[in-house]
């Protein structure tokens, strides 16, 4: 089983088409700019739009009243987020998750009904959309299986390796710019489990905390701990 990558990847055909039809006016959209910490939408919001990101990073996550959170995905430039508009209910289409900007974000808000109509009449784009949604679903299926089978230390090691790959940090020392709390939310575990894992990785001489960031100091040792959760590209 491969480790989860929380970063949703763009589908070139889908991205290129949306940018083109928004630019030529085929699909009406309004431009949005978010500062770090701004919400694109919140749990419970009545959602009638789908958002296409042109810049920045958005964290999609669930939250509870007592402050617990689980990161579901990170969406980056070239990806779509927010599909409640495709729900069959007419009166209300509530979001079940929160979407929050982690960096400055620029996006287009697209009317979901009009977007759906476009997909119905353009089979190649509709198929690319189906592939995009399937890949998101498969990522979540993989994570659900991993969470029930593999120990936290192994999952955490694999997560660090996938984050390093996403940030193009293939050589040590590689900086992972997230706190223990943020990393815990990515795996859906208590922060103490991450703290204990960091200690274990430090003792294994493959990672350590430096000035608030986690630093991978030995990729080979870290991969040996992640074991079969890492699939080489």
UniProtKB/TrEMBL annotation:
Keyword NAD: no
Top-level division of the source organism's lineage: Bacteria
Family annotation (InterPro entries): cNMP-bd_dom (IPR000595), cNMP-bd_dom_sf (IPR018490), HTH_CRP (IPR012318), RmlC-like_jellyroll (IPR014710), WH_DNA-bd_sf (IPR036390)
GO molecular function: DNA binding
Residue intervals of the HTH crp-type domain: 150-220
Keyword line: DNA-binding, Transcription, Transcription regulation
PROSITE patterns in the record: CNMP_BINDING_3, HTH_CRP_2
GO biological processes: regulation of DNA-templated transcription
Annotated Cyclic nucleotide-binding domain residues: 27-136
Alphabetized SUPFAM superfamilies for the sequence: cAMP-binding domain-like, Winged helix' DNA-binding domain
UniProt-listed Pfam families: cNMP_binding, HTH_Crp_2
CDD domains: CAP_ED
The protein's name: Cyclic nucleotide-binding domain-containing protein
């Amino acid at each position: 089983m491969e480790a989860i990558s929380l970063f949703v990847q763009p589908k070139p055909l889908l991205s290129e088409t949306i940018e083109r039809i928004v630019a030529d006016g085929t699909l009406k959209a309004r431009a949005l700019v978010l500062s770090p910490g701004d919400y694109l939408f919140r749990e419970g919001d009545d959602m009638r739009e789908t958002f296409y990101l042109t810049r920045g990073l958005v964290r999609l996550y669930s939250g509870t009243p007592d402050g617990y959170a689980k990161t579901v995905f990170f969406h980056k430039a070239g990806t779509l987020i927010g599909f409640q508009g495709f729900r069959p209910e007419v009166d209300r289409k509530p979001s079940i998750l929160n979407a929050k900007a982690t960096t400055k974000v620029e996006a287009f808000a697209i009317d979901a009904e009009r977007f759906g109509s476009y997909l119905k009449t353009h089979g190649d784009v509709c198929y690319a959309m189906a592939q995009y949604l399937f890949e998101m679903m498969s990522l979540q299926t993989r994570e659900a299986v991993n969470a029930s089978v593999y120990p936290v230390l192994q999952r955490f090691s694999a997560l660090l390796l996938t984050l390093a790959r996403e940030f193009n940090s293939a050589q040590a020392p590689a900086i992972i710019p997230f706190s223990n709390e943020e990393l815990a939310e990515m795996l859906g575990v208590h922060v103490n489990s991450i703290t204990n894992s960091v200690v274990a990785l430090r003792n294994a001489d493959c990672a350590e905390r430096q000035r608030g960031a986690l630093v991978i100091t030995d990729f080979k040792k870290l991969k040996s701990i992640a074991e079969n959760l890492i699939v080489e590209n």
